[in-house]
């Protein structure tokens, strides 16, 4: 990951990553989107729900930076990312596909709008409450286009070749 990125580059990367994911999903049938992978209990729909949840968390973090108010604990009582992901899976696995896709698209639009409204300077801000993230733009990258790419690779592996 580079040391810094401009707002224009960040927005381009988010939009391009989202577009690549939508292109991957567009030709898939409902069955392909909802059938669990052979090596996992997750379906592609579950990956989409997972991305939506993390975008929601990102929105909370962005709002906290803008208001300079530390957000509440994320998933209190859960110690690891794997535990958080498991909670997300169980919370969303039985929801209808249309709701999951609509939620993903809406959360993407909210993230994009929030980033568009931020200044170049705000993207360089570090978190007083997050030691694991260097600055705001790196968190945005992790929870958008880098995360899309990671899950797109997993989704591709679950599709018939």
* Broad structural category: mainly alpha
Low-confidence stretches: none
Proportion of residues in extended strands: under 5%
Span from first to last CA?
Answer: 31 Å
- Rg over CA atoms: 16 Å
Please identify which CATH superfamily we are dealing with: dinb family like domain
Helix content: 55-70%
Number of self-contained structural domains: 1
Q: Which of globular, elongated, flat, extended, rod-shaped describes the shape?
A: globular
Q: Summarize the main sheet.
A: none
Strand and helix order = HHHHHHHH
What does this structure look like?
With 161 residues, this protein is mostly helical. It has a single domain (7-158), classed as Four Helix Bundle (Hemerythrin (Met), subunit A) (Up-down Bundle). The chain has helices at 7-25, 30-34, 44-67, 81-92, 97-116, 120-123, 136-143, 145-158. The longest helix has 24 residues, at 44-67.
What attributes characterize this protein structure?
161 residues; 8 helices; 66% helix
